[in-house]
Amino acid sequence: MLRVLGSEKRLCDGISRRELMRVGGLSLFGGLNWSRTAQAVNTLGESRGPAKSVIMFNLLGGPSHIDMFDMKPEAALEIRGEFSPIATSVPGLSICEHLPKLSQWMHRGTLIRTFSHMFNSHDPLPFMTGFTDGNPAAQALPTDPPDIGAICQYLGLGPSDLPAAVCMPCFPGSGQKGHRRRGPYGGFLGKQYDPLFTLCKPTFDREPKFEHYDPVMPLGEPFPPTADSLQDMTVQRLDRRRSLVSQIDGEFARTQSSRAVDSMSDAQRRAFLLLTSGRTRDAFDLNLEPAAVREAYGRNLVGASLLMARRLVESGVPFVSVHQEIFDHYGHAYDMHSNNFGMLKNLNLPLLDQVIPALLQDLDSRGLLDSTLVVVMGEMGRSPRVNATAGRDHWPQCGFSLLFGGGVKQGLVYGSTDAIGAYPTSNRVSPADFVATIYQLMGIDPHQTVPDRTDRPILIAHGGEPVVDIIA
Q1: Low-confidence ranges of the chain (pLDDT < 70)
Q2: CA 251 to CA 395: how far, in whole Å?
Q3: CA-closest candidate to residue 165, choices 150, 181, 175, 144
Q4: DSSP 3-state of 273
Q5: CB neighbour class for 88 (10 Å; exposed up to 12, middle 13-18, buried from 19)
Q6: 11-50 burial, b if ≥16 CB within 10 A, otherwise e?
Q7: Is residue 196 within 8 Å of residue 31, measured between CB atoms?
Q8: What per-residue confidence (pLDDT) applies to 163?
Q9: Which pLDDT score is estimated for 334?
Q10: Could you point out which of 54, 153, 419, 469 has its C-alpha 20 to 30 Å from the C-alpha of 313?
Q11: Could you give the CA distance from residue 200 to residue 198 in angstroms, rounded to a whole number?
């Protein structure tokens, strides 16, 4: 039963898609599970929530809620758009016709239709931190609040020989001339609480076929470069014919024989030990996966990243974020001010309909879905009215979040919107409330504080309260 509680070349902010990502590397200036746990204001006890790990899939650019999960088939054509709804595994719930596989998983998750705020930016800051203040056009700032992954690291969650937070396939904005979008960072806690970043270099063919994107390659040049980077650990290009493990072994062997180790700080030495851990290398080695599993996710960058996310949470990593970035003129982010329906139908929705069911099936078959919270969402929704170029514009006032596993209710639709999908009419969910809910599911007190740069106590969920009605 349905339960209702209450193709552009640039992003709209003018950042070009033409700047390709460089050959990737694990960032050595952050993402390390050797956090100053003793300095945490409040620490976790032995008890943890149902979500031992979180996989957060960011549909960067602002996915159209009206064309995906909150369709308005009775509205005028300029509102409802070109797509038709189809039934799902939840009686009474319909979603987009171009998501047939995902429609059969809806009984296993919660659909929030009323994620709402006024932070008009493509940064994932709102749903990764709960914070919506400041300049939406700013790059990531050292004064920003820490994200969920940084809090996991601060509290010392996860195995000691693995990072507590990983960001894939690159930091948000790395495909846009290095514009570091606010969100997945340690912020005022310090860069030592940044996630472990991976980088990648997608390749292109004449046609925008996803299989022509290289999988994520998680070793190479540390990025972003800082004074703490290991200057001698640089790879101009990785040999794609060799296995990932042999690449890692070779690079660290060269580093150990150089003077870089002698000049490392204690923090860098700990980073080096973490990255040479056999468990870390194994977790990032997709060559260990059967061909059938690789095919299920798809031989593409997003599929490879989500498969790697499954490997990481299986190894005990508490927080993994995967960001669907923007790649050259075959970009497939969700910032669709024009050609909204063509991009969704031909690129984004087929990809989404493959990778999320594959991830859920994989987690479920391994007994990991109940302990892994899978989050699928973007930073905002899209405008109710279709514009003159068959696109939809920014609309942070209303968007969706799709959650599976990790302690959320099954077959639930939370919140309702008006007749054109412009505003919530019941059960609005703010970013702070959303992040507080994730903390609650992870067993982290959302009312906990951490010190900012002036030692002021700052609430990790910025005053948000868990949405208890979606928690099982």
Answers
A1: 1-47, 175, 177-178, 200-276, 326-332
A2: 45
A3: 150
A4: helix
A5: buried
A6: bbeebebebebbbbbbbbbbbbbbbeeeebeeebeeeebb
A7: yes
A8: 86
A9: 93
A10: 469
A11: 7
Strands 85-87 and 94-96: antiparallel
What is the full DSSP assignment across 105-141?
TGGGEEEEEEE-----SS-SHHHHHS---S-TTPPP-
Residue 414 DSSP code: E
Q: To which residue do tokens 């300095």 refer?
A: 39
Residue pointed to by tokens 């700052």: 458
DSSP 165: E
Residue type, 110: T
For residue 331, the model assigns a pLDDT of 47
Q: Report the alpha-carbon distance of residue 9 to residue 345 in Å, rounded.
A: 18
**Of residues 214, 220, 383, the one with CA closest to residue 305:** 214
pLDDT attached to residue 451: 96
The alpha carbon of residue 95 and the mean position of all alpha carbons in its chain are separated, in whole angstroms, by: 22
Amino acid type, 166: V
Cα 19 from Cα 30, distance rounded (Å): 24
